[in-house]
Design a protein that fits this description.
The complex is a heterodimer of chains A (about 120) and B (about 120).
Chain A lengths: L2 E3 L4 E5 L4 E3 L2 E3 L6 E6 L5 E7 L5 E3 L5 E5 L4 E6 L8 E11 L2 E6 L3 E6 L1
Parallel strand pairs in A: 2-12
Antiparallel strand pairs in A: 1-4, 3-9, 5-6, 5-10, 7-8, 8-9, 10-11, 10-12
Chain B lengths: L3 E4 L2 E4 L5 E7 L5 E7 L5 E9 L2 E4 L6 E3 L9 E3 L8 E8 L12 E2 L3 E5 L1
Parallel strand pairs in B: 2-11
Antiparallel strand pairs in B: 1-3, 3-8, 4-5, 4-9, 5-6, 7-8, 9-10, 9-11
Classes of the chains: A mainly beta (about 120), B mainly beta (about 120).
Chain lengths: ~120, ~120
């Protein structure tokens, strides 16, 4: 079965500093990886995805993610954090076959950006 | 505006009652999903449906039931058999890729917070 792991429950960073939220994956075959963000009491918003091609994927709100096959990682990054980036971040992987597929989520990482 | 609408936003259930959470989408998506979110556990899949009149159990289907009579609608019933139903429930939809490609992201509703009283 496919899975993703987010090793950090919380990440703290000062506003203006770069941020990284970590994700590692375990898949058989080609990985289809996603990042989502959740603000309090809201649904999840799609940030970006990796399918094939460039290892650096750019997404919404200035976020990007780096796919590293040798380290089986898909870390989310942003060059300069904003206080408004404070939220819960989820890494996810697609699993399934034959047109029946689903998203498997990590446990989430809470990002706190301090002024 | 296209999107997914979940209702109600807050729901209170008495012990032994069945309750139904609504999920409607106007994105013309074939696939729909129900997830449960508990603190520190991320999202767990309850049920999913790839096409009308068809659905599959997810990882934690016990105590829940669904129907998919219309493409736009995927209601979730939390039955009295679900012993710990207090949680945040999220509905999502996506394009169903009949070729089996899995490069499609899911779009989420705003969630329903269910509390047992």
């Amino acid at each position: 079965a496919q899975s993703v792991a987010q090793p950090e429950d919380q990440v703290n960073v000062a506003e203006g500093n770069p941020l990284t939220v970590k994700c590692t994956y375990s898949v058989s075959g080609n990985p289809y990886l996603f990042w989502y963000v959740q603000y309090p009491n809201r649904g999840l918003q799609f940030l970006l995805k990796y399918i094939t091609g460039d290892n650096l994927v750019k997404g919404s709100y200035g976020f990007e993610a780096e796919f590293n096959k040798s380290q089986t990682s898909f870390h989310l990054k942003k060059p300069s954090a904003l206080v408004s980036d404070s939220a819960l971040y989820f890494c996810a992987v697609r699993e399934g076959a034959g047109g029946y597929n689903k998203l498997i989520f990590g446990a989430g990482t809470r990002l706190a950006v301090h002024p | 505006d296209g999107g997914i609408t979940q209702s109600p936003k807050y729901l209170f259930r008495k012990e032994g009652q069945n309750v139904t959470l609504s999920c409607e989408q106007n994105l013309n998506h074939d696939a729909m999903y129900w997830y449960r979110q508990d603190p520190g556990q991320g999202l767990r899949l309850i049920y999913y449906s790839q096409i009308v009149n068809d659905f599959q159990k997810g990882d934690i289907a016990e105590g829940y039931s669904v129907s998919r009579e219309k493409k736009e609608s995927f209601p979730l019933t939390v039955t009295s058999a679900q012993k710990n139903p207090t949680a945040f429930y999220l509905c999502a939809s996506s394009i169903r890729d009949s070729l089996g490609l899995m490069n499609t992201e899911a779009f989420f509703g705003q969630g329903t917070r269910l509390t047992v009283v």
